[in-house]
Amino acid sequence: MKVKKLYAILMLLLLIVGGCSNETKEEPPEAKVKINDVNIETARGTYQWEKKSFLSNTTVIADAAAPFQIAEDMKAEIVEQSSVANVEFNDGSQPQLQAYLWEEEKRGEELPLNQHNITLPSEKGKYVIEMNAKWSNGDSSYTFVVEVR
Hints:
Oligomer: single chain
Number of helices: 2
C-alpha cells in the first residue's frame, strides 16, 4: 500500500515538473535584422502574446507608439540601393512575416519578401520599415530605419 502511495506521489510530481517546463515566454522574441553583415537596430512595437503553462494560459497585450513615432528615436543605418535585410529571431523561430514602408504617419506599400529576406527600396531616401511577425501563440510588430544612398 505504501509503495502505491509513493508511486502516485512521484507520478504527480513528475506531471507538475514536466508541465512547468513547458511554459512559453512572456513576450515575443527579439528580431535581429542584418544588411550586408551589419546589425540593424530594431524596436519591438505593439504585441499580443499568449503564455501557456501547466495550470493556466495568460494573454499579454502591449500597446506601443506607431512605427513612425518609434523611429524618431532610432538611428538610420546607411545602406546601398536595393539592399536585402535578413530577419531572424533570437529564439530561432520562423514566424509568418510581412514588411511595410511607413510614409509619414501611415502605413504604405508592402515590401517584397523572400522567406525572411526583405528587399529594401532602390530609391534614395530615409525609410521607416515595419515588420509584422505572427506565431501560433501571438504576434508582434518591429520597426527599423534605413537610409538608402
